[in-house]
Sequence to fold (717 residues):
Amino acid sequence: MMKFLKLKPNVGLLSIPYSLIFIFFFFIPLTLTFIISFWDYNEYSIIPDFIFENYAYIFKDCLNFEKDICVTFKTYLSTFIFCFITWFFTLIIGFFVAYFLAFYVNSITWQIVLFLLCTIPFWTSNVIRMISWIPLLGRNGLVNDFLLSTGLADAPQEWLLYSGFSIVLAFVHLYTLFMIVPIFNSMMRIDKSIIEAAYDNGANGLQILWNVIIPLCKPGIVIGSIFVITVVMGDFITIGIMGGQQIPSIGKIIYVEMSYLQLPAAAANAVILLALTLLIIWIMTKMIDIRKEL
Amino acid sequence: MKKSLTRRNMLKTSTAAIGAVAGAGLLKGFPAIHAADAPVIRYLGTAVNMGDAVQKRLFDDTGIKVKFIVKTTDEVVKTIFTQPNSFDIVDSEYFSMPKLVPSGNLLGMDTKRIKEWDNVTSAFTKGEVAGKKIGDQGTAPKKVMYLKGAKSKEFASEPTQYVTLIPTVYNADTLGIRPDLIKRPISSWAELLNPEFKGKASILNIPSIGIMDAAMVVEAMGEYKYPDKGNMTKEEIDLTMKIFTEAKKAGQFRAFWSDFNESVNLMASGEVVIQSMWSPAITAVRTKGIPCVYQPLKEGYRAWAAGFGLPSTTKGRQADICYEFINWYLSGWVGAYLNRQGYYSAVIPTAKKYMEAYEWDYWMMGKPATADIMSPEGKKLASKGEVRDGGSYEARMGGVACWNATMDENKYMVRKWNEMIAS
Fold:
């Protein structure tokens, strides 16, 4: 105990580098983004001001229910749907991959090898990945060739590429890893004797999974979900490439505004996106106290 | 204990892997060093028309080295605004000038220091090709060429000694098609929205250029005749976007593209059979052995033009090196290199000296090739007997209908374009 107390001042010192990084690369940029979202702008400069025009424009027509649903709501709605579907599939697949790695693979070497296999989607650049989907899913691609030659379809299936389907496919392909790692981490912390105790008390495999393993994996599941949801909320490259640039994303709107130097408008969009993402994370952390579980 | 330690290692490995993935995108370029004896020029631009051969030749001829800072068209403009000292020379398009010049970040270029200035093509200086006026809707170079002085932020309507950019390269753009999949002649921009090509058309997702292609289509369909396609009113933007939104909702487009390589892949894979395209993309599809035509259309071409500018802080030795580089660039070797890619050099007589007679006849005169036509990289572009799409320089540049543009209502246009993408 005394030893710990002696160490205390050093702990304060040790936290300085991280605090500095946090302040300079997180807090200050974010504060600037927030401030600039109230500025005015023209073709070539941003003008210090305090206006709500940038925010007002984002929600323009959104409260007019006689017209079609406004662009902002439509974009967020489509992003939320992608988020949900991607989250659902990455969770199911990620959970069972982690389960397999944690409980069925006993050698640490094999666990590492199999883990590295999961990172393969990240070994190539976005452009290469995009190009490689075309020969597989395209009009003249392998999947369509197979469907046509076996008579399962009589015309090439166009929804396979540049569609919601291909976007979800790419997301799941990429981000399942973000689910696997934290869930695997949680699973490895489960004391094996708890499972044995459940077994000794007559629980069957399914009951152990549902009543013991899943509750104990909750922190991993929530952390993985936060990873996946934040990444999908802010994504515009995958949605752009796999959706043939025909499906909207908030990220793309921000990107276009930035490239036309409409920085205050982009900042306003970024603030709203950040607020919504934080809201989702806040709700998820309400479900489980991550700090306590870690 | 042992178990938990190894688990730690395991996690370290996997976290490091994720970290490496996340960090991979961050490591880009660092500043060039200006050594007194080996001048290095930091060249900001899209560099789509530049290759290693240019750097090598430049070094052999002048001892100057070039370090490319490669960005997309829009990002080049953004860099000039936000990091005006991060480059020594910029290769920019004329349509960015109405935005860039008022910022004062670019230097007025002194034409007295350009050896070949008097030989710069009249398409730039007067808006004429072979003595005939060409289309000047949009930001035609002659409108934004001259400045009132070296440090001026205003355009001059009459020729002066100072210009915004020293012209280098330009071209007349049109639609690219797959003749083997379309199997009938195409002669109008209106075909882009022809329901016959439903799900097989594409347009580029760069608003400032896409809107011009869209306007060519709308006018060709007979829906509306713009007083100036390159400077639409809000109502005209609404109308144009409405027609494209409806087509998009009806499933006309297979995809939109924003990256040069995407357009090549869409076309080469047959996902798309008609789309907005750039000249080198056509070349890239053709060198794969896939037929692809840069189809001349009766309504004319959408032209673009680029040139060199210097940051306003340039002076002394740095300015000398940059002017030397520009003079070398216009002295013919690069001109021939650009012409062989299907672009046009701003100084035509010097480029001619570096081209073989049969090459000149094919690229510039629109005559049938008397020998196989090769790209600068030595790949075959056309066989003996073939004629260039669109024909001669005079036929192509003479057929220009409008130029890439920055509109007064640019802000509104970008927002409407985003809405179309989201629809």
